[in-house]
Structures are given as structure tokens and as C-alpha cells.
Amino acid sequence: MPNKIARYCRAGIRYLTDKDYRFLIHSSDKKYQKMDDESYLKLKFKASMGYELDLKNPRTFNEKLQWLKLYDHRPEYTQMVDKYRVREIIASTIGEEYLIPLLGVWDDPDDIPFADLPNQFVLKCNHNSGTGMCICRDKSALDIEKVKADLRRGLAQDYFISGREWPYKDVPRKIICEKYMEDTSSQDLPDYKVHSFNGVPKVILVCRDRFKASGLTEDFFTEQWEHLPVSRVLHPNAAQPIKRPQELDQMVALTEKITQDLPFARVDFYTIKEKLYFGEVTLYPASGFEKFVPDKYDHEFGEWIKLPEISGGGYIYHRLNTFLYVHIEDTNPENRGLNDYKFFCFGGKVKFFKVDFDRFIEHHANYYSPEGKLLEFGEADYPPKPERELVLPDNLAEMERLAEILAKDYPFLR
């Protein structure tokens, strides 16, 4: 009891004297929920990591994860983080045989037929990371009402809020039930987390003793199973050496298939009775807010992520589960880059549009009528260049049509 009182006193003093600590305590409160993502992430990053988040020139692993949250918005990411719908991706990419058997899926805890479930099973929400989970090893000892209450709490959790991991925003919330998996040859079921950098697996994190009183241990290895002298602050390395799994090469090969063309992703596996099973895909480990010891590995892992170009195009609109994602290379040598077309809609109709060009040479912007006639006005910051004859695209009418669809019912929208 004295130790607990002393711990509370230290926490209280820190709360009063440390603004970063206060922010971390209250970061999920309502007053921060309306803060824009970039401002919020900068505050939380400084409070968690101890240094300013540099989004213009990100270098560390954790900085680049924040950059990816803000600027890499591929629609498929929402399905990848959905523990239910990702099964479709895995089945089509590497095969159904790697999926843990699914026993059921429901929208409401009251719909779960507990009487029909086997004696052992795992219940969890598909959109978060553990809140509401039930690992049932003996159904006769299960408090079903408590399990239902925990699952309701899990379904109510907005997993996006605390880390601004946008793919979780639109995951349709469900409860899934999977077969309880255990390896009778081992008391511990290690979790192998393969980190892939631009489609190349380079680091394997092994998590063990997750449910032991001594606490979770973490060990990092290269893809050749060389132990790396690094840990994360909250989780020490294991006391005993960890044997190379027989399925290591298979894990690496499967991860390559799953993460092809992704700037970064982590794929989790379990090995049970010499058979490999897929766990989940994670795009932002620890939400990009956990320190490495020594911190040089934050820089080293960061160097391995080559961020996508954002000179033009990208994810630009999302409404009612519909995405508009544009990334088209302009091969016309006269345009010297990717031009940006911005349609100004008044009462749902395009009245004129703007073309930004030579953005990384000497940024200019010309304004045009809906028919493509050059207009005699422009901006002070990005002055027009009438003498530059831009070749307007063949799909100009299609862009205008889409703009008017998106602008319907709005007094003004660009």
C-alpha cells in the first residue's frame, strides 16, 4: 500500500508540472476530438517522443508513420485493418489455409448463440486492438453477461480518436468469433510480427509471455534471424534465447505477397503444430508513438521507408463509403509535372476552374471557363502565365461532371 500511495503521489506531481503528460492523459477527451489531425499528431508526438514532429522532412520510423497517416490514404487500407474483411484479402493473396477458422460474426452481443459455441473460442471486435476481447478456455466458467458488456464497450470504442489512424474510421463494426488455437507442444504461443519496408520484409518482432505476470517481452530479429540489440521502453527482451522458427522463410515470402507496393506494413503470424496462421495487418505499430532503445533504430528503421510522392493526385474525397482517388502521370513534356485541376462549384455547378502548374519550378495558376477559355484574372501568390499554352486534358468534361456530382446540395465547394 505505501508503494501504491507513493506512485499516485508521483503521478499527481507529474500531472501538475508536466503539460505533455497532462495532454497524454486527456488526449482522447472530447475537447481534442475536433482538433485537426495534423495539429493533434504534432502535440501527441512531442508529448510521447520528446521531440518535434517534422512532417516536411520526416526521418525517423515514428515520424514517417505519422506522415503516412496524414498523406497516404489508399481506400484498401480500411479493409486491411478490418479483422473480418481482411480475411478476403488473405484468402485471395496467399490462400484460405492460413486463416484461423471463423466460427461466427455478429453485429450485437445479444445475437451470439453461446450455447452453440464450442468449449473454447475467442471473441473480439474487428475494428480495434483488444478492447472487449474474450479468450474463453472453459465455457462452463464464463460470465456471459460480463462478456456481452465488454463487447459492447469494445464496439463503442472509436479507435481512430487516440492515434488518428484514419483507416479505422469506416470499418463496419462487428464481433467475430475464431477457433481457440493452442500448441500443446509449448506453453507459450509466440506472435511473429514481420515488418515490411516498401514490400521488403526486414525485421521480425517476436512477442512472448503476453499473459504472464512477468509481462510481455519483445525481441527484434533480422530476416536472417540475427538478434538486434534493440527494445521498446515498456517491453524488455526475453531472458532466454529464442529459436529460429522452422516457418521463418515462409513467413517472409508470404509477407512479401501481402505487402507488395505498400510503403510500410506489419504482418503478424502464429505457428501452431508446425503450421503457419495469419494474425493481422498493422499499418502503424504502437500508432507511431513508442520509443526504441537505443533510439538509433528509430532512425535506421526510418531510413528503410521510402515515402510515396505527393506532388499531385491522391485520395481527395470520401463520403458514404465512396472514395475518389486520383494519381495520374502527365506524360506531356510541355506540362513538366503533374497539373492540378480545381473546379469551383457554386450551387452545384462549375463556374470556372483553376490549373496549378510548374509547382516545383516556379508555381503558376491559370483560371479557365468551364469550356476551357483562359480567363483574365488570377492570384497574387501564384500569378497566371497567359503565354503558357496548357494542353487541357481529353477528360475535362468528365472531371467537371464528377465535380458537380460531389458539389450537389452545397452552396459552394471546390
Account of the protein in words:
The chain is α+β, with helices and mostly antiparallel strands and 414 residues long. It is built from 12 helices and 17 strands. The strands form 5 sheets. It has a 5-stranded antiparallel β-sheet. Strand 5 (191-197) and strand 6 (200-208) form a beta hairpin. The longest helix is centred in the first third of the chain and has 16 residues, at 2-17. Residues 311-319 have low confidence and may be disordered.
Set down the secondary structure blueprint.
Layout: H1 2-17, H2 19-26, H3 30-33, H4 37-49, H5 61-71, H6 76-81, H7 86-93, E1 102-106, E2 121-125, E3 134-136, H8 144-156, H9 159-163, E4 175-179, E5 191-197, E6 200-208, E7 217-222, E8 231-232, H10 248-258, E9 264-272, E10 275-282, E11 292-293, H11 296-303, E12 314-319, E13 322-326, E14 340-346, E15 349-357, E16 364-368, H12 396-407, E17 412-413
Antiparallel strand pairs: 1-4, 2-3, 2-4, 5-6, 5-9, 6-7, 8-11, 9-10, 12-13, 14-15, 14-17, 15-16
Question: Helix count?
Answer: 12
> Strand portion, in percent?
15-25%
Category from helices, strands and their pairing: alpha+beta
Weakly predicted, low-confidence segments = 311-319
How far do the termini sit from each other? 61 Å
Largest sheet: 5 strands, antiparallel
What gyration radius follows from the Cα positions, in whole Å?
A: 25 Å
Large-scale geometry = globular
Strand tally is: 17
Helix content: 25-40%
Record the strand order, biggest sheet.
Answer: 7-6-5-9-10
